[in-house]
């Protein structure tokens, strides 16, 4: 069964983007990209047809998909559209995010045929999954893409698609209240604007880059990781405690991607 392959992803620190692109590259040489990371890219609705295959990619925030992306997914619709679901987490656990993603897209007219959870460097610290997805992860993502293509080639009609189970619980893990752990800006700032231009919620003031709207900031740390001079950092005590707890409890053993197909 031949399909137009589409990549639909939210990726503030580019880890999810790398995984989705690696998988998609082994399914088709021709893909359409819908990078919904920046606010302007989420202004319009997107509809997919029976002729499409959509590879969806999201990061995991505290065991769930990001709330703002859950809201945006209300503007995505399918029509018996095949979907491949991916979640990228920072080495603690992806909890219910993948199952949540599956339920959302099933309710929007999509038919999931495969899913996977990958590792990406944690937004809080490089001591958790530092540098990931690494070369081994990318090879696994490419292998996942090949497996999806093999499955797709065996499908002649949607009646050939069997339901599959993935990890997760319902009701989903309760969302944590907003942390308000916003980044601070040091004197190293050179006003290059990289932080504001890459902020997925538009929380950073374009006229004064040290001004960050705490009601918009989701502590994705895109600005922290992208700043070329290291001027952005989070100094909140709660952030330091959370980072220390994560390192102590989840950094010792390397986790590997999990695939459901």
Characteristics of this structure?
single chain, 261 residues, alpha/beta, Rossmann fold, Alpha-Beta Plaits, 2 domains, six-stranded mixed β-sheet, two-stranded parallel ribbon, 7 helices, 27% helix, globular
Description:
Helix content is 27%, strand content 19%. It has 261 residues and is an alpha/beta fold. It has seven helices and ten strands. The protein folds into two domains: 4-171 and 255-260, Rossmann fold (3-Layer(aba) Sandwich); 184-235, 2-Layer Sandwich (Alpha-Beta Plaits), CATH 3.30.70. It is globular. The two termini are 17 Å apart. Helix 1 (15-25) packs across helix 4 (135-153). A six-stranded mixed beta sheet has the order 2-1-4-6-7-10, with helices on both faces. It has helices spanning 15-25, 67-72, 97-106, 135-153, 194-198, 222-226, 237-250; strands at residues 4-9, 31-35, 46-47, 52-59, 76-77, 81-89, 110-119, 184-185, 232-233, 258-260.
Quaternary organisation of the protein chains = single chain
Provide the domain count. Answer: 2
**CATH fold category name of the largest domain:** Rossmann fold
Low-confidence sequence ranges = none
Overall pLDDT level = 96
Query: Using DSSP, what is the number of strands?
Result: 10
Q: Which secondary-structure class do the elements indicate?
A: alpha/beta
Shape: globular
